[in-house]
Specification:
about 450 residues, alpha/beta, 4-stranded mixed beta sheet, 16 strands
């Protein structure tokens, strides 16, 4: 795909009116406000940052979703990442149906749990034991507790711009100053909880060294998204991750990679494998469940043996390693291990991104599209962005226009300019060429109208 094939049409120079039907979605959203806070069960779904009522999806197949009004979209949200094989994958569907026919939950060990555990550990050099939970947030919560239990220390270092779920001690931002104790970003979090977290800028090695030198006696762990993908795509240099690894060794602190998004997206071994950096604990989610609610955390025998019933770090869950979720995850991961899977997916993503980037470069649009594996982000800036404070808040106005224009053209991105997009194996080259043309046309409206 070449950026030169995008056609710039004068008919698209002015902001388009709403040309797709949204009446049924609007009715459903109005009804939902009677049942759920803000009408949704997760905040970003409310479309607060973009235009119109949220799209109510009725079904998905391959790389496309269909909403309640009958509109069809090429989907780059992919359920916020887990659908690396696309919607309604036949092998996952069949595995789920087979499992459901035998019972949906037992609260006991099952052979399906053994099967996916064996597959994961045999194909990932960076982990030796794994514990399943039911969400990415739960995985991170458990990993942090484990780090505290192993080290006997309390505090956590996180980085501004990295999101680790909605657990109290990590739902914080930096206070004033370079290296600060956390300040809550949500009501309902005691100040004492937030004060157990130290927030640092990404890629500030001096601040990292000073903080560890001063506080390492009470720092249990450093947690980072090795591929930060919850506040834009803030790709870090490998040397920074290596620096974290060395500093953790030096100061007796555990290193946690939060790979809820990057795990199985940047490769089967995730960012740990991509950068060849060994963390002490890794958290997983999204892809690992094939679209079902699954999370996990993993590490060495030595660390994981601290978890009950072997050790004294307690963590439990009735639906952990649920047989239906394990069946879905196993069916998904089997496909990811097929020869050439990641190479093909990364190549498609690169061509897709280059198509759009070339078009923007030719017209001097202020757009940069960082990407890694099958993850991409449309940033309204020319320079590389590696820290959250480098994102211009005003650029979200441009994203609002882009999102609106793409809906009119049948392309769906997550409804926030801070969210990344995902390419799936179900996106064909023709699908991606069509989507790229439509994104180029939508960007014309953003920059010319």
């Amino acid at each position: 795909m070449s950026g030169k094939t995008c056609k710039q049409s004068k008919s698209m120079m002015q902001l388009s009116e709403n040309t797709i039907r949204r009446e049924r979605s609007a009715e459903l959203f109005a009804e939902a406000k009677n049942y759920f806070p803000g009408g949704v069960n997760s905040p970003v779904r409310a479309f607060k940052s973009v235009s119109g009522p949220p799209i109510y999806v009725e079904k998905g197949d391959g790389c496309r979703i269909t909403d309640a009004d009958g509109n069809v979209f090429i989907d780059f949200c992919c359920s916020w990442g887990p659908l690396i094989l696309g919607h309604n994958n036949a092998r996952i569907r069949e595995a789920v149906m087979e499992a459901v026919a035998q019972g949906i939950s037992f609260g006991t060990p099952t052979r399906r749990g053994n099967a996916i555990g064996k597959l994961l550990l045999e194909n990932n050099r960076f982990i030796e034991k794994i514990r399943f939970v039911t969400s990415g947030t739960e995985a991170v919560m458990s990993a942090v507790r484990l780090a505290r239990g192993v080290t006997g220390k309390n505090k956590v270092i996180k980085f501004e711009g990295c999101y680790h779920g909605h657990l109290d001690s990590l739902l914080v931002k930096a206070g004033s100053g370079l290296a600060t104790f956390g300040v809550s970003t949500s009501a309902g979090i005691p100040e004492s909880f937030a004060k157990e977290t130290i927030v640092l800028p990404l890629d500030d090695r001096d601040a990292l060294e000073r903080t560890l030198a001063e506080h390492s006696h009470d720092i249990a762990c450093i947690i980072i998204e090795p591929i930060p993908a919850n506040n834009g795509l803030l790709l870090q240099d490998r040397s920074f991750l290596q620096c974290l690894r060395l500093k953790c060794y030096k100061y007796g602190v555990l290193l946690i990679f939060d790979e809820v998004i990057s795990g199985f997206r940047a490769g089967f071994e995730g960012a740990a494998g991509y950068y060849d950096v060994q963390p002490d604990i890794i958290t997983y989610g999204k892809v690992i469940g094939g679209g079902m609610p699954v999370g996990a955390y993993a590490g060495s025998h030595e660390i994981m043996d601290h978890i009950a019933p072997e050790g004294n770090v307690y963590q439990a869950g009735t639906l952990a390693a649920n047989p239906v979720a394990m069946a879905a995850g196993k069916a998904a991961l089997d496909q990811l291990l097929e020869p050439g899977f990641y190479e093909k997916l990364e190549d498609k993503t690169r061509q897709f991104v280059q198509h759009i980037q070339d078009y923007c470069d030719q017209r001097s649009y202020q757009v940069h599209i960082p990407h890694i594996g099958s993850i991409f982000w449309i940033a309204f800036a020319r320079e590389r962005i590696i820290r959250a404070d480098q994102i211009d808040p005003a650029s979200m106005d441009k994203f609002k226009v882009l999102h609106h224009e793409l809906l009119q053209r049948g392309v769906y991105l997550g409804p926030s300019g801070y969210e990344v997009g995902f390419v799936s194996a179900a996106h064909t080259e023709a699908d991606l060429a069509e989507a790229a043309e439509k994104i180029c046309a939508a960007l014309d409206v953003v920059f010319i109208s």
